[in-house]
Design a protein that fits this description.
Number of strands: 4
Structural class: mainly alpha
Strand content: under 5%
Radius of gyration: 32 Å
Strand order of the largest sheet: 1-3
Shape: extended
Length: 380
């Protein structure tokens, strides 16, 4: 008895539409093959109709939702087991652990940002604010200095001429504000070149800071012309950090928003480093380095998924109480259970390794976080 569909069926799976060659990869097929055994595409020569298109569209959504559903269910309630299943070959059942972690973490920060925006919390604000100081008219100041003696010089406001607000006050009949001019220790390019690398960088940065604070010129090109310094890319970048520092001081939440937006990518690149300790600590186990890395991404995915789920309840409560409990109590317990279920060691050994890995995690995360903060601030 034939197991093919009746000829009257208009489905793309009907036998009358089957071919002897896959239209996607060219692999030879039998008329009994519903799908290509090589690439998995449906064996059908029927022209794609409007109804067929939407049937396949919704079918793909259902299939993706099935993987997502299994991933969320097992990552929440089967710590470590989901990793064990995945590394043992159940790949189509679950979403890719790397993609899942990045997706959940990015969605978490996006939703938290939206909640903060609509609730009036300034912890997350628009990063596209323009620096008003960059729009003002800035003019080159004349820096009178002589480096013939190759000595540093303390320069005050008398040696720098520029249009200041005090002149505008005088024109309006307002009293002049007496302000003690800031002494600027000037270093020429020739003097800086004669110093060691660390001294040269420190003196240059100090000069740029003092000059910026005194004359509030945010344009690096104008400032370097005033200082008679070379307008190299490094000098312009270094001077521009004054504006970044000013923005952070005036609105630290803006920088926090910028910094938090990079956290998923920071953890993504931190995970391979952390996986080295798992690889060394569990060297007698059969798992490879990549399988330890998958375990870590499942842990990170659980953390962000849990915080994502608790966003709305914490919003209704008005405090981050549930998230605090989750991170301080549930998270560590989940990590311990995941170690037990995945590596299959007894409670005492698992507990000792759990404590050791937590210490390593805190130390290494702190060191790398400082580097990450410095790199992020440099690019801000």
């Amino acid at each position: 008895m034939s197991n093919t569909l009746p000829e009257k069926s208009d489905s793309r799976k009907a036998a009358k539409y089957r071919g002897v060659q896959c239209l996607n990869c060219g692999h030879p097929l039998d008329l009994s093959d519903v799908y290509c055994s090589y690439c998995g595409q449906l064996n059908s020569t029927k022209k794609l109709a409007f109804s067929d298109f939407f049937k396949e569209f919704f079918s793909s959504i259902v299939n993706y939702d099935s993987r997502l559903r299994y991933t969320i269910k097992d990552i929440l309630f089967k710590p470590g087991t989901i990793t064990k299943n995945y590394v043992e070959g159940q790949r189509l059942k679950y979403a890719n652990p790397f993609r899942f972690f990045l997706s959940v973490s990015i969605i978490y920060f996006l939703i938290q940002s939206l909640i903060s925006t609509f609730s009036g919390n300034n912890a997350f604000i628009n990063l596209n604010n323009n620096d008003s100081s960059s729009k003002k008219n800035e003019k080159i100041v004349t820096f009178n200095s002589s480096d013939s003696n190759n000595n540093k010089k303390n320069t005050n406001q008398d040696s720098l001429t520029t249009q200041k607000d005090t002149l505008q006050a005088g024109e309006k009949g307002l009293p002049f504000e007496t302000k003690k001019p800031k002494e600027i220790t000037y270093y020429s390019e020739k003097e800086l070149d004669s110093m060691s690398l660390t001294d040269r960088l420190g003196k240059r940065w100090g000069l740029y800071q003092d000059f910026y604070e005194e004359y509030d010129i945010s344009n690096p090109g104008i400032a370097l012309d005033s200082l008679k310094h070379n307008k190299t890319k490094f000098n312009q970048w270094l001077y521009s950090k004054n504006s970044s520092i000013k923005r952070i001081k005036e609105n630290p939440f803006e920088f926090v928003n910028y910094l938090l937006g990079k956290v998923p990518f920071f953890l993504f690149f931190f995970a391979p480093f952390f996986a080295l300790f798992f690889w060394l600590l569990y060297s007698k186990k059969k798992y490879s380095y990549m399988e330890h890395l998958i375990f870590i991404f499942h842990i990170f995915g659980f953390v962000f998924l849990g915080m994502l789920i608790l966003l709305l309840p914490d919003l209704l409560i008005g405090e981050d109480i549930l998230t605090g409990i989750f991170l301080s109590l549930i998270g560590p317990f989940y990590f311990y259970k995941a170690l037990r279920n995945f590596y299959k060691q007894n409670r005492l050994i698992t507990l000792l390794k759990f404590l050791f890995l937590n210490i390593i995690f805190q130390i290494s995360l702190s060191i790398i976080a400082i580097l990450f903060f410095a790199i992020t601030a440099a690019a801000y």
